[in-house]
Amino acid sequence: MSDETQEIIGDYRYGFHDPENSTIRFDKGLSEQVVRDISELKDEPQWMTDLRVKAFRHFAERVMPEWGNCDMLNTIDFENITYFLRSSNQTEKSWDEVPDDIKNTFDRLGIPEAEQKWLGGVTAQYESEAVYHSIREDLEEQGVIFLDMDSGLKQYPELVKKYFGTVIPHSDNKFSALNTAVWSGGSFLYIPKGVSVEMPVQAYFRINAKNMGQFERTLIIADEGSTVHYVEGCTAPSYSTDSLHSAVVELIAMEGAKIRYSTVQNWSSNVYNLVTKRAVAHKNATVEWVDGNIGSKLTMKYPSVLLKGEGAHAEVISVAYAGKGQHQDTGAKVHHLASNTTSNILSKSISKDGGRSSYRGLLQVTPKSTGCRSKVVCDALILDGDSRSDTYPTMEIGNSSSDLEHEASVSKVSSGQLFYLMSRGFTEDEAMGLIVNGFFEPFTRELPMEYAVELNKLLELEMEGSIG
Amino acid sequence: MIYQKMTIPPRSEHLWRYTPWPRIHPSSIDKVPDVDGVIFSLSEQHEMESVAHSTVAHDDIARAFLQSAGGSHNRLVVSEESEPIHIDARASGHIAVGHLHLDVKASGVVLIHLTGEPEWVGIHITGKIHPNTQLSFGFVNELGSNTKFLRCEDWIVERDAELEHATLSIGGFRCKSDLRTTLNGTGSTIRQSVTANAVGSRHDDEHVEIHHLHGHTNSDLVMNSACSGNSHFIATGLLTIAEGANKTDASQVFRNLLLSERARAEAIPELEVLADDVSAAHGAATAPVDQNQMHYLMSRGLSPDESKSLIVSGFLLNAFSNLSNKYLTQEMQTRLTVHLECELKR
Fold first, then answer.
1. Which residues of chain A neighbour B275 with C-beta distances below 8 Å?
2. pLDDT digits (tens, 9 = 90+) for A269-298
3. Residues in B touching A410 (Cβ below 8 Å)
4. Nearest to A396 among B14, B243, B266 (CB)
5. 3-state DSSP call for residue A179?
6. Which of B243, B260, B287 lies nearest to residue A385, judging by beta carbons?
7. Could you tell me if the ipTM is greater than 0.95?
8. Beta strands in A303-443 (DSSP E)
9. Hey, are the CB atoms on A391 and B281 less than 8 Å from each other?
10. Mutating which of B14, B238, B286 best tests the A interface, going by the most A Cβ atoms within 10 A?
11. Residue A370 CB-density burial (10 A; 0-12 exposed, 13-18 middle, 19+ buried)
12. Containing H/E element for B295?
């Protein structure tokens, strides 16, 4: 590993990479032909090819966002990215059939072990496409469809056509246009009426190649009265050049359904993570985004919920850790489009070693939505004088019968708390780690146990040497 | 920069999101119209001097426009402690613009009462609070109900100086205020309150920026609005704490009371913190009149309208409670009470 790379990755534990053994690799750069080639390679229906092309044209015409960290955004070189890379010729149902080098990667990440213990289904995506996919038989018998998105499109074209792009149209923003043009992989999950999936289903995304762009597309439809918990994790090796992850995630919660979507994003610090996530909640439905952002160079992610049906509820819990050279620009958006809808947003961030964390949120109540309630809480910790924390909340209230609250605070770690712990024998580092873990506790307690333990370990690792 | 050479700010800039520049400009946006000067008059014992047109270059389009437009230019020096200074600012004609600079070398109270019924009024106030002095400043906007109003203020508060800044916004049909304060020395403080009563189809956009450039600086901002009819109130705040400005204590509280179905309120309290040892907090709340409070008052014999007006009055008056100067607090509260009583009689 070069010194330059070592400097960039620091202690990042998933920074290893395997030799690249791709079966198909497109040249770098993006054109309409590349978009058509991806679609042809996947043998997609004509409507999808047309949509991809339309999205590409929109992407080419649309200017880069003029808000947020424009300096970082404008360094993305779209011509220096590989838009499609196939590592395995098919999606396997058994780990034994997955090519050894890829299987080794996921072994090191602990995915097969986790699957045996506590997951209802797993999709493992390596570069552009899923290499492994499985679902527990009992769930399959109940009619649960859990596939990678490419297989979903092949096997359930009508269902995909009905919902694809309905929550996040290709023209939503520049990066949703890019994703729609070149999407590959991701998850397609359908839960039939009244089915409750007790164990979480998980997708794991790994970028291995240099200058790779990963554009997965996830569509989750929870039919009336169903419940599901979907978990995703992300890592990438560390190179001295940058990669781009630009996903689109659409959730649809029908009447009375409940979807919880948990993410622990731990990309290496050379990945641009520009993700559009949005959910629609119909009558009495609940959507929960539990979103942890630890890695990446620049993350711009604002999970949103459109509360479309009366009595719908949204819950967003997000944490962000911004270390050296990182900017975590995260937040949440909730649109109260129907009466008696409720939402809670809790955002926690830590900035350290010159990192920058920003909360950017929107809370909107339309004039016809009566009796809505919402609470937004943002807390930020700044651990040293080089770091930065910003809060950009927006509340647009068009109805007089709604109750909305927003509160935010920025502070440093209390020296009183540090002193208390150190007087009980902890070192300064340990004490700081404990306080930080406690600060993130409202988030970790919402994660499955294994993820929570993993997150605490990651934070401890990040906190090492944070004093002095 | 010269106004005509400036590009129109996009709506993605949050300062211009809800009241874009073309909506507040008095005519077609590439033009600087002929203007009359706003007349500032003082009580006899104080003097104000007329000064030359300022040549300071502005990056901000509103300030550059006001500079290009000209109008009246005045300077008031507060050099010794004295009785409170009342300035009557009278706008007349079709379009009126006024510039006022306050040089505060001794502690005092300054109150500006703006009236008039032109189609458009623009005011640019700048002020410097010298070290170890205190200024209590009040601004009452009581323009006619058909007037568009643009107001810019730039304050510099030096070491151990203190600015108490109160705004009562009750006039004009479309108002855009951009009030900026720089805490430029250790120990400097600003306590700021903005109270707005948005009635009918009034559009009131109040933007407050407070920049903490040094450590041990304090700011406290309270913005209260009551919105009725189909009015629209926008409160945006930007609080920045510069690198190394440790031991800074900053807070912003935005509260909106929505009194009708068609009234709208936006609250955007922003924070940018680059120092670690600070206490910075903001809060925003938007809600209708509390039914328990209504019930309490009505059970004591008050009519629903009287009860509501009492609650609104208490809510708006409360915004001035963070001010320490009793004279200023009383003056602002009196003006507001008179205004609310007139409203009730209509």
1. 382, 385
2. 888 999 999 999 999 999 999 988 888 899
3. 271, 273, 278-281
4. B266
5. helix
6. B243
7. no
8. 304-307, 313-322, 327-330, 333-336, 342-351, 356-365, 373-382, 388-397, 403-411
9. no
10. B286
11. middle
12. helix B291-298
**B199–chain A nearest CA distance, Å:** 14
CA–CA distance, A405 with A344 (Å, rounded to integer): 10
Residue of A nearest to B242 (CA): A388
A66·B243 Cβ contact <8 A = no
Sign of CA dihedral A439, A445, A451, A452: positive
Asked if the Cβ–Cβ distance from A407 to B280 is below 8 Å, we say no
**A212 φ/ψ sector (left φ>0, alpha ψ -120 to 50, else beta):** beta
Q: Is the pLDDT of residue A116 over 70?
A: no
Q: Do B279 and A394 touch (CB under 8 A)?
A: no
The pair of structure tokens assigned to A134 is 């499985």
Token output for B329: 């607090």
Three-class DSSP category at B111: strand
Find, in chain B, the residue whose alpha carbon is nearest to that of A415. B277
Q: Are the CB atoms for A340 and A371 separated by under 8 Å?
A: yes
Whole-angstrom distance, CA of residue A83 vs CA of residue A27: 8
Q: What is the pTM of this model?
A: 0.82
Helix (H, G, I), strand (E, B) or coil at B96: strand
- Evaluate the CA torsion angle B1, B7, B12, B16 in order and state its sign: positive
Question: Residue A303 is encoded by which pair of tokens?
Answer: 């999970």
Q: Report CA-CA distances (Å) from B88 to B45, B84, B111, B140, B243.
A: 14, 13, 8, 10, 41
Reported as half-sphere exposure (CB side, CA atoms, 13 A), residue B74 has a value of 19
A389 in reach of chain B (CB within 8 A): yes
The answer on pLDDT for A6 being more than 60 is: no
- Rounded to whole angstroms, the Cα distance separating A106 from A109 reads 5
The confidence score (pLDDT) of residue B55 equals 73
Amino acid at A449: M
**What is the C-alpha to C-alpha distance for residues B251 and B269, in angstroms, rounded to an integer?**
10
**Domain ranges, ordered by start, for chain A:** 3-301, 414-468
